Amino acid sequence: MDKLNWTFSGVEAADGVGGVRTLTVSDLGVVFQPIVELSTGQVFAQEALVRCRRPEYASPPVLFDCAVAENACGRLGRLIREVAFGTSGDIPLFVNLHPEELNSRWLVRPDDPLCFHARPVFLEITESAAFTHFDLCKSVLNELCRRTGALLVVDDFGAGHSNLQRVVDLMPAIVKLDLALTRDIHRRPRSRAVVRHMVNLCTELGARVVAEGIEAVEELACVRDLGVHYAQGYLLARPATPPPNIAWPFGTSAPAIARGLPPVVESRPKPPPLPKRPRPRPSRRAPPPTSDVAGAEEQFKLPHDRKTKPPSA
Asked: In the chain, which residue ranges form alpha helices assigned H by DSSP?
């Protein structure tokens, strides 16, 4: 069973100095990829994806593998959020959490940038993390979402790492389908049947569904016809900074059902609206940054220091 250790910072366990621990906000960049609402063809939110400027950490998986080896995931995650919220602007934002971050106090600090973003924040974990770190996910993330108004997202849903009951118990607001289900879905009747039932199930449980990795118009038309709520992929926009616009291939009208696909059952219940995130009170101020992220406050502007803009069209 996972041990809840909210006081472990990841600094106390270090042996020596170097590696990921020497990274600062100036070493990190973030690119954004839009998540598009399929019923309107408009941007719903942007996902922040880390990019490290040091060549030895150019690959994000390598970066996080090294962070795990150094017990530095908590600090790294905090630096990434400093950069992400500092460069995203006033938009809804998906941010990824490594499961090892749940075991450190960085994520629950009251001065974390996610506590001060005026627009909706979505905390994204993988389905495998929901299985291997279930107790931490259920306790830490649920408490964090309760205190900050952030919403939980389960990524790679359908990858087979966990049983369905554990994902249901986490009560995510959004689930992202595993790439294996959406790739070439217009050519694979079995995958279409699985996705249709998964969408119906998630909808009945109050969660919305994102199809990732969409690279072809046929894939986009197919998942839209199957009732998927949102899509993300190179067809719509490649990750970029600042947050990019999208290339919507269908104009303003819904695409016709792809040739050869069975009709979608229209009696499917509609998902409830996502809960609104409470805005930070104007009097709320973040404490000065710690020495580990000194100067990070300059990397982002607190939302109460600017006027809130209406949601993007």
From this structure: 60-69, 73-88, 127-132, 134-136, 142-148, 164-170, 179-182, 189-204, 217-225
